[in-house]
Amino acid sequence: MSVDPYSHWHSDQSSGPALAQRLDRLARRLMPGGATALIIVILAAPTGIPGAAALLPGLVMSTVFFWSVWRPASMSAPVVFLLGLLMDLIGFAPPGVDAFVLLLLHGIAVHTRFGLMGLSFLAIWVVFSVLAAAACWLLWAMISMLSLNAMPTAPALFEVLLAIGIYPLTAFTGMWLHRRISNPEPQS
């Protein structure tokens, strides 16, 4: 029985494209969560962007909702939990509050995704608006209970309006990225 000592080199060459394909799939899968984490860090940093801290919760809610509907494998519950935890650690709410609310939003989006996918953009926007309003008021209530003090309602109302207003931009950007992820090669 003759064993070629260099036979393992041939198998490495054939696994090259397979490794590249696996890395490509991994990058595509991690893109929504990674981009959202990057947005959180950029908007939380002292960049001088006016209203960046106020924009963050609505932007993250709309991003989590969009990707939970259209690519739930890329915006899985552990990813949503880590995004919420990142927001909590940055200091926007008591620890666990953002993570809890984002997980609720994610769960509802994933559970109703097949029904939502058949709706028009306007109908999805209305559904998101209701969910975002509920999420913002839940955040307000939880922060008020945890601080043992009723927080002002104006910031919560502002967050609701901001989340509703930012969703179309998030959805159109997300849809463009979703198509690019699904179909990376240009059509001839």
Describe, in plain words, how this protein is organized in 3D:
It is a single chain. The protein has 188 residues and is mainly α. The mean pLDDT is 85. The radius of gyration is 21 Å and the shape is globular. It is built from seven helices and no strands. It has helices spanning 7-44, 52-70, 77-90, 97-111, 113-117, 121-147, 153-182. Helix 1 (7-44) packs across helix 2. It has one domain (14-181). The longest helix has 38 residues, at 7-44. 26% of the residues are buried. Helices cover 79% and strands 0% of the residues. Keywords: Membrane, Transmembrane, Transmembrane helix. The chain crosses the membrane at residues 35-67, 79-105, 117-140, 160-178. This is Rod shape-determining protein MreD.
* DSSP summary: helix tally: 7
Number of domains: 1
Number of DSSP E strands? 0
Report the span from N to C terminus. 51 Å
User: Pairing-aware structural class of the strands and helices?
Assistant: mainly alpha
Largest sheet: none
Work out the helicity level: over 70%
Q: In sequence order, what are the helices and strands, one letter per element? A: HHHHHHH
The global form is globular
The chain-level mean pLDDT equals: 85
Uncertain regions: pLDDT < 50 for 5+ in a row? none
Computed over alpha carbons, the radius of gyration is 21 Å
Percentage of residues in DSSP E strands: under 5%
